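Entry type: protein chain
Record version: 2
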Amino acid sequence: MICTSYWNNVENKMENTKKLFPVECAGKVGFIDEDNKIVVDYIYDETYPFSVGLALVRKNGWWGYIDKTGKEVIPCIYYPAWSFTKTGLAAVCIEGKYGFIDTTGKEVIPFIYDEARYFSKDGKAKVKLNGEVFYIDTKGNRVE
């Protein structure tokens, strides 16, 4: 069976851990290390690069997060979800409402928004609530 690299040399330069590379094999994605050793089995439909120690993964249509050992630290229960940013927060959606979780899966900003995205470098996230679009900070406070 031929497996192909999902991305070429993707790594988070801020992390001082072993590089892992996503690889697709038989329609599923897993991760290998620099020595071509399988670290995360080929069980995911889609993956994104590691960010703050966690990778966003999709399994059976649902999104969650794994650590670099392949342990699913935040279950695949979200649709959709975004990667964690340097703020340590990720936008996720449950039952049509968006909020933000931390790297342990704890809700940090309530699931009240109609839409939400990741935090940008300036520490703001674009959200939509009752038709109004605005920005919030990492505490959930509205900002300009």
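Comment: Residues 3 and 18 are 21 Å apart (CA to CA).
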